[in-house]
Structure formats: C-alpha cells, structure tokens
C-alpha cells in the first residue's frame, strides 16, 4: 500500500483515566474530570458494497480534534 494511502493515527495523551481514579479514591484531592469533545471533524470511508460498487461516504462529527471542559 502506498504511504499516502496508509491510515495514520495522531498521538493522543489520556490524562482523564488517572485523574478519574484519583478523584474516586480521594474526591477532594482533584476536581472531577470534565473533558468533552469541543471540535469534531468528518471521517471519509471508501468501500466496495455488495453489488461490487465502489462507494465513498463522509460521516460528520466522527473525529475529535479538540477537547474542552463542560
């Protein structure tokens, strides 16, 4: 597969789980997690359907681009 066609996953850092664990053990030690998606982008899918047609679909709001507090 050509390099330009290979899927890539950007690096993400998960700070929520440790903070949630700390909050469950000592609620006053850290505020509750509040990270929610703030900006979303579409994802494009290319596939072959049951009739052997190449189908392109774009699904809105599928990729989280930024998080924020609620």
From TrEMBL:
Domain TGF-beta family profile: 1-70
Cellular localisation: Secreted
GO BP term, pick one: BMP signaling pathway
UniProt keyword annotation of Glycoprotein present: yes
The entry's keywords: Glycoprotein, Growth factor, Secreted
Pfam families linked to this entry: TGF_beta (PF00019)
Any one GO molecular function term: cytokine activity
Annotated GO CC locations: extracellular space
Family: Belongs to the TGF-beta family.
PANTHER family documented for this protein: GROWTH_DIFFERENTIATION FACTOR 7 (PTHR11848:SF160), TGF-BETA FAMILY (PTHR11848)
Protein name (database record): TGF-beta family profile domain-containing protein
């Amino acid at each position: 597969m050509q390099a330009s066609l290979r899927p890539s996953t950007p690096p993400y850092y998960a700070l929520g789980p440790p903070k949630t664990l700390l909050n469950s053990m000592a609620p006053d030690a850290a505020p509750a997690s509040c990270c929610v998606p703030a900006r979303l982008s579409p994802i494009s899918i290319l596939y072959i359907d049951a009739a052997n047609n190449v189908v392109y679909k774009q699904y809105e709001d599928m990729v989280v681009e930024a998080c924020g507090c609620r």
